[in-house]
Each structure stands twice: as C-alpha cells, then as structure tokens.
Amino acid sequence: MNEFDLIARLAGALPADPSVIAGIGDDCAVLDVGLPDRWLLFKTDAVVEGVHFTTNAKPEQVGHKALARALSDIAAMAGTPTHALITLALPSKYDVGFVEEIYRGLNSLAARHAVAIVGGETTTNPDRMLLSIALLGWVAKDKCVRRSGAKVGDALFVTGELGGSLAGRHLEFEPRLAEARWLARNFSIHSMMDLSDGVAGDLRHILKAGGVGAELLTTTVPVSRAAKARARQGNAAKSPLLAALTDGEDFELLLTIASADAVRLLDAWKQEFPALKLSCIGKITSGSGITLRDHHGARPLNVQGYTHFA
User: Fold this and answer.
1) Inter-residue contact 255 to 214 (CB < 8 Å)
2) 6 φ, ψ to 5°?
3) Helix/strand/coil percentages in the chain, nearest 5
4) Strand bridging mode 278-285 / 155-159
5) Are 33 and 139 within 8 A, CB to CB?
6) Tell me: the pLDDT tens digits for 79-113?
7) Percent of the chain scored above 70 by pLDDT?
C-alpha cells in the first residue's frame, strides 16, 4: 500500500466540523474561523534524514528546506504564511552546533517571509533526525486557489525548470509565494498546486480533483540544466524528459488557466518576473489520465512520480 492508498484508507474516518472548507486532498487545510474576508490555512510537513536529506547536507540547508516545503504549500493556495511551530527529533548523541546551524537556515527563510516561529517540541528519535513544521497562513476568500478547478480546454503552465533537483536545488529552492499571489490577483487561476513528487504524479491530483485528463507537449516541458547534464555525463538512469516528469522535489507551481488568457499571462509574467521561466506544457482534456504528444504522435504517460512506500 503506497502513500496515497494509505491516505485514502484513513481519510474517510477522520472527524471534521463545519469550519473545514478543505481538508485532505489539497495542499493545505482551509478553515473558516469567522472572518469576513479571509480563510485560515493550516499545513504540516516534515523532512527526515536519509529520505529528504543526507548526512552530507549543510545544516542550514536542512533548516531552509524544512520550512520551504511548508511555505511552498501555502504558495499553492495563493496564501500568505504567518506563524510556525517546529518539532525537532534528534538522536541521543547530537551536535549542538549542527542544530544551531539548522535553525540559522530556518530563521533566515522565516525572516524573509515574515513568518514568526512561536514554539514547538523537541524529542528523541534514536535512529535519525526529523524536523517537522506546522504552519499557519491566511488567504483572501476570493483568491484562494485549489486543486479542483481545472476545466477542459484549460492551458497547463509550470514555473521554473524541472528535474535533476537532487543535484542540490532541492535544498536551496525558493517557495513561489510572491508569484502565486501575483497570479491570483491578476488572473482567474482555475487550479494550482506545488510540485513535490513530479509532474507525472502531482498532475494526477489535479486531474482526479477536477474529473479531467491532460495532454502534455514533450517539446515544451522545461527540462533543467541539471537533468540534461546528468544525461550527457552518463549518470542518469532515465532521459532528461523523464527526469523532468518524475524526479520530484522541484517545488515549482503547476497551474491551469483558460486558454484565452494564456498569451496575456505569458506577456505579463515576462514583465513581472523576467528571471523566472513560465512554460505552457499542455492542456486539460476530457476523459482521464495523462497523454504525451510529440512529433511521433500521442501515447499515454504510464509512469508515476515519487511515492512513499512504493
């Protein structure tokens, strides 16, 4: 039973209440706490030694990544983060200086996004280090973007470049908070999420939530230089395109918008974010599943992204 099978099995028995606008099945929980103009966002995420980082990682990078993962989910809802709690689980013999450097990286990122660290928990974990973040944020009710709004005919966009993140970018990425809020302010974004498990996996969440399918154009997928370099050096177990679709840990935004707005979006994006690529990689279709289209024709994309317990 993989990660998503387990979540589906557990989800049906979880208690809820009328304040829950969105629970399991989106990037953040969305809660109505009685304010007229905005909803509360609530998110938790964790990094585990040996899974999300190795012992060779710089400690400040570990702290950065731990918070950045949660911030990226707030970005996926077009929200603004505000407060965080930190749970730190350490082996009984740990290096105090290493832990202080973790917090240096965490605090630096928190300060850049005006996130207050307001407490947490420390505990022992005999085998390895674990760092878990509980994060709160806000989103305007009329700007909240969920996974479930994709419509047939929508253009499918992605920010940045994909694949090869384990070469180092997965420890240094910047969550797309400003970009997501700009998108929600200036355009009608139908659906959006962040890419943690690769397009081949994460896009399926958007498709399932919207009851739609997708066609990807292989020539427009923005393959990263790291993925291409690994292939040239003979170190890659898969093609650069396949790496871009399945590697995960990219933490870019994946979004859909009416095709009539696609050109206007591209033009406005170049003016607002000239240093960050925005690529139209396909369209939303009727039916289900993902199809790849290239000069040879169309074929189904049968591979998945990263999945825990697979």
Assistant:
1) no
2) -65, -45
3) 35, 30, 35
4) antiparallel
5) no
6) 999 999 999 999 999 999 999 999 999 999 999 99
7) 97
Lookup: tokens for 261: 């707005």
CATH 3.30.1330.10 for domain 3-140: yes
The tens digit of pLDDT for each residue in 236-254 reads 567 999 999 999 999 999 9
Of 181, 191, 154, the C-alpha closest to 280 is 154
Class of domain 147-300: alpha beta
Name the token pair of 244.
């871009």
Query: Tokens in use for 235?
Result: 């170190």
With contact defined as beta carbons under 8 Å apart, do 9 and 309 qualify? no
Give bridge partners of residue 166 from the DSSP assignment.
none
Mean pLDDT score of the chain: 94
Distance CA 295, CA 299 (A): 11
Question: In the chain, what are the domain boundaries?
Answer: 3-140, 147-300
Residue 61 to residue 68: CA distance in whole angstroms: 10
Please check whether residue 67 is in contact with residue 82, taking contact to mean a CB–CB distance below 8 angstroms. Answer: no
Sheet holding 20-22, edge to edge: 20-22, 29-31, 38-48, 130-140, 80-90, 116-124
Q: Do 3-140 and 147-300 share a fold? A: no
